Amino acid sequence: MKLIDLSIPLEDGLPSDPEGQIPHILYYNHKDTAAEMAARFEGCSAADLDNLGWAVEGLYLCTHSGTHMDAPYHYYPTMNNGERAWTIDEVPLDWFIGEGLKMDFSDKPDGYKIMVKDLEEYFARVGVMPGPGNIVLLQTGNDKLWGKPEYMLGGAGMSAEATRWLLDRGVRVVGTDGWSWDVPLPLEGKEFARDHDPSIIWEAHRVGKECGYCHIEKLAHLDQLPVTGYTIICLPVSIKAASAGWVRVVAVIHEDGERLFS
What we know:
Number of strands: 15
Radius of gyration: 21 Å
Number of helices: 6
Largest sheet: 9 strands, mixed
Order of helices and strands: EEHEEHEEEEHEEHEHHEEEE
Oligomer: single chain
Structural class: alpha/beta
Strand order of the largest sheet: 1-15-13-7-9-11-12-4-14
C-alpha cells in the first residue's frame, strides 16, 4: 500500500494565521539541557553525560494551529437542532477512518463560493456520489500559499447549502486545504459589508447547528490523490472539552483492489 501525508508540519512563526494564533516553538538542544538532565540523578554532573542532555521543545499553540480537526462545539454551542455540541474528545472515533472522496475545485478563483449546483455537476462528471462513511476532501490548491500571509485569503470555500447537501447524504467528516471550510473570512467580511446579511457569516460552519459534523482545515498535497480509491485516517489529538484537535491526516492508497478494512 502507499501512504500520502496530507498534513502540514507545525512551524515557528509562520504568518499564515492571525496574530495571536501563530505557533511559536522553543527548541532546546542537547547542550541546552545537559545540566537539567544531570540534576535528575543524584551525584551526576553534565560532564558525566558528555555535556549532552535530551532534546525537547516547548510550544505555544492554539487548537486550530496547523492541520486540525474542528469539532461541532467550534461552530456553535448546540448541534442537531438543539443538542449540546460535542467537543473534540467526544466525537466518535469511527468518524475518523473512512473511504476518501476528493472534490477538485482548484480551478475556481480565490473566494469562490461553492454551491449545490457545483457539487452536482462535479460528482456527475466523476461518476461517483458521496455517502455515509465517506470523508470528503476539498482541493482548492491553496496549500501552495502555505507560509505566506496570503494563505488566509486563498482558495474557494463552501456555502451553507453545499455543506448541507453533503451532510444530507450521510457525510460527517470533510476537509479542505484552505484556511477555512468557508470562503476566506476577510472575503466573507466584504460580502457582509456590501449586503449586511448576517446569515453569510461563517455560513458553512454554522450548518453544524442543524447537523453535527467535523471538518479538517489546512490540509496539503490533495493534488496527489485520485478522486476515489483510498482510505483516510484522521484521528485528532484528544483535548478535554476543546473545540479542535491537531491531526496527522494520512491517505492509504488502495492497490490491486485491496482495502484497509474488509
